[in-house]
Design goal:
- The longest helix has 15 residues.
- This protein has 182 residues and is an alpha/beta fold.
- The chain has a 6-stranded parallel beta sheet with strand order 3-2-1-4-5-6.
- It is globular and about 45 Å long.
- The protein contains 8 helices and 6 strands; from the N terminus they run E-H-H-E-H-H-E-H-E-H-E-H-E-H.
Length: 182
Amino acid sequence: MTTGLLTVIDMQRVFADPDSPWATPRFAEAAAGVRRLLPAFGDRVTFTRFVAPERPTGAWRAYYERWPFALQPADAQLWQLADEFASGARYVLDAATFGKWTPELARRATPQGRLVLAGVSTDCCVLSTAVAAADAGVEVLVVADACAGADEDSHAKALHVLDLYRPLIRVTTVAELLQETT
């Protein structure tokens, strides 16, 4: 069994649907990586969902003026986990922020001492979560081939930036991570 808490960031319909304004290219490839990771973590998995706030404040007002389609309640279809993950997700954390390093996630990750991140988008929510967790003193592993970015270039650049945080943050692959347990 792999050590740490696997946190699967925002594998939601809004990012999976090719017709969505927020469609994430290579979502299917990231999902395949996540599927390979899940058995190694057992019940030490947290799924996150990005959801819109009821009433945006501050800079979020301008953000949702740009993306008004997203101002829907948390139970709206677009915010649901992709079908392949919805039924198996035992613990789901909702946040109206890019970064998912919330007090709830900190409580789940801290006893493990290691946070393993996968999901979308590498250049937004994964990056925001990784840096905040590393600042809190948690070892962070970002699984490159279980993540997808807004586009290939942004994904690659985000991985490069994340790798600059070594040893606090380490970029790895599904195969490398799973090999650690053998």
